């Protein structure tokens, strides 16, 4: 197209037919370019005196493939490759804009590739356009025609059509998109936000709740770095903490399976623990974003260090020391811990409101035993504060959560029994086979736990220590009845 656009107006009087002809052609071409651009692309060419040719060149310079830019920097004589002629889609784009499905369908019949790629400089597809212009009937028709792969196409800012749809809050149309392609709920934009987090950002709770229910659980876990999103979502809709998704997964169960998300599951050396205790992490009162007193912004940190240290050698040394002792890694760990505890607090507020049937449905009972098996003492403490009856809950073989802690050799959870007024009652409990805690302690520890200790002698010593510790809390009557 660029070769067909004049770079400037002809050198003639503005009242001549030649100039008027050029002005009409320039206006038509510029209009086609404007219709094909998103907000970001429009900002590149928004000048009062820009011609269509200049607009085209500016857009091409910004959006041509990076590899081409690098090649041109290395070889100034390199030929500029042809780009996709988006002007051919101007009529199609206009039909989508005004909601003329018949005209759009006619164009698709003669240009089937219009459904398999971008139709504008912004990288938007026909589905993007239908969503942006609010023509949901056309959107539904396009979904019937488009392939699953085409629905995953992202525009220049990384937004799929579903991602854009989250701003409208139209749940019904989101269902149609996801019915066509379930994977699209996991596709993040250039800012690492998946559709459910965008729905929260836009304040559409119904949309967020639906997307939460269909988003795979692994996309909602701490490792994905979406704690802030989860906290924001739960702040607006706390019941989601105990609401099962399509896979019968709940947040309460998810937290109970992640020891590394809590302080009790992290093993630190003396120096690492000292650094961990020293780093200050706190939640913002206006939002659930975590702010570190240690500055994560490299530019601000460099500026502050320049005030104190004027030697570039010393600054490099400081940076090397930070990396060597792992400060960044430790404060990121503490950040995750603080956010996990905040999520747990919200979860436990909901547990307080549940009856036995609701707790079973929300997988709370399963969660406390998972937490006991994995040694997440924080989970046990907070959940039993929310509902003390959980201390008496029995698993499928009739043991309470301290039976599980002993069986899986989780000392941090087992030690909690010492602070309970009902310690003796819990310690004298029997499971479905009439075994008490000493019977459980007498069983060999799981291989994964034994394997943490090298050497059979040390393993045997550790097992004996466990037995003696459990024996010290089991009432004498029950201890005497134990058969070695």
Automatic annotation (TrEMBL):
Superkingdom, natural source: Eukaryota
ANK repeats, residue ranges: 122-144
GO cellular component terms, semicolon-separated: plasma membrane
Keyword field: ANK repeat
Family matches, as InterPro entries: Ankyrin_rpt (IPR002110), Ankyrin_rpt-contain_sf (IPR036770)
Bilayer topology annotation: Peripheral membrane protein
Subcellular location: Cell membrane
Protein name: Ankyrin repeat-containing protein
Organism in which the protein naturally occurs: Quillaja saponaria
């Amino acid at each position: 197209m660029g070769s067909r656009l004049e770079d400037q107006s002809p050198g003639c009087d503005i009242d001549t037919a030649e100039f008027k002809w050029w002005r009409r052609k320039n206006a038509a071409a510029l209009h086609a370019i404007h219709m094909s651009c998103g907000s970001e692309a429009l900002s590149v060419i928004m000048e009062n005196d820009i011609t269509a040719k200049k607009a085209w060149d500016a857009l091409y310079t910004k959006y041509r493939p990076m590899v081409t830019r690098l090649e041109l920097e290395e070889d100034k004589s390199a030929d500029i490759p042809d780009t996709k002629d988006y002007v051919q889609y101007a009529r199609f784009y206009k039909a989508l804009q005004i909601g003329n499905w018949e005209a759009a369908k006619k164009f698709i019949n003669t240009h089937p590739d219009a459904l398999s790629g971008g139709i504008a400089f912004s990288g938007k597809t026909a589905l993007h356009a239908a969503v942006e212009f609010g023509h949901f009937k056309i959107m539904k028709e396009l979904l019937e025609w488009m392939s699953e792969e085409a629905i995953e196409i992202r525009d220049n800012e990384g937004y799929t059509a579903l991602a854009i749809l989250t701003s409208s809050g139209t749940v019904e149309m989101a269902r149609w998109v996801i019915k066509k392609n379930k994977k699209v709920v996991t596709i993040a934009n250039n800012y690492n936000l998946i559709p459910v987090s965008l729905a929260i950002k836009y304040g559409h709770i119904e949309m967020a709740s639906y997307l939460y229910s269909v988003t795979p659980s692994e996309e909602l876990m701490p490792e994905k770095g979406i704690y802030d999103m989860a906290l924001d979502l739960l702040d607006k809709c706390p019941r989601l903490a105990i609401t099962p998704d399509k896979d019968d997964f709940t947040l309460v169960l998810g937290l109970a399976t992640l020891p590394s998300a809590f302080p009790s599951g992290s093993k630190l050396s003396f120096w690492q623990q000292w650094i961990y205790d020293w780093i200050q992490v706190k939640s913002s009162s206006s939002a659930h974003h975590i702010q570190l007193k240690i500055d994560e912004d490299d530019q601000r940190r460099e500026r502050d260090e320049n005030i104190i240290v004027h030697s570039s050698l010393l600054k490099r040394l400081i940076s090397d020391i930070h990396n060597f002792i792992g400060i960044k890694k430790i404060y990121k760990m503490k950040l995750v811990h603080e956010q996990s505890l905040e999520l747990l607090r919200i979860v436990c507020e909901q547990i307080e409101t549940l009856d036995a049937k609701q707790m079973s449905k929300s997988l709370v009972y399963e969660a406390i035993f998972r937490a006991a098996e994995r040694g997440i003492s924080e989970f046990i403490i907070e959940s039993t504060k929310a509902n003390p009856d959980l201390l008496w809950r029995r698993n499928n073989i009739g043991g309470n959560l301290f039976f599980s802690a002993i069986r899986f050799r989780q000392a941090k959870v087992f030690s909690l029994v010492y602070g309970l007024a009902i310690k003796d009652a819990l310690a004298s409990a029997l499971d479905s086979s009439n075994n008490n805690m000493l019977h459980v302690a007498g069983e060999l520890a799981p291989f994964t736990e034994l394997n943490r200790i090298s050497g059979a002698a040390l393993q045997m010593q550790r097992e004996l220590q466990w037995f003696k510790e459990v024996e010290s809390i089991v009432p004498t009557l029950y201890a005497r009845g134990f058969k070695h």
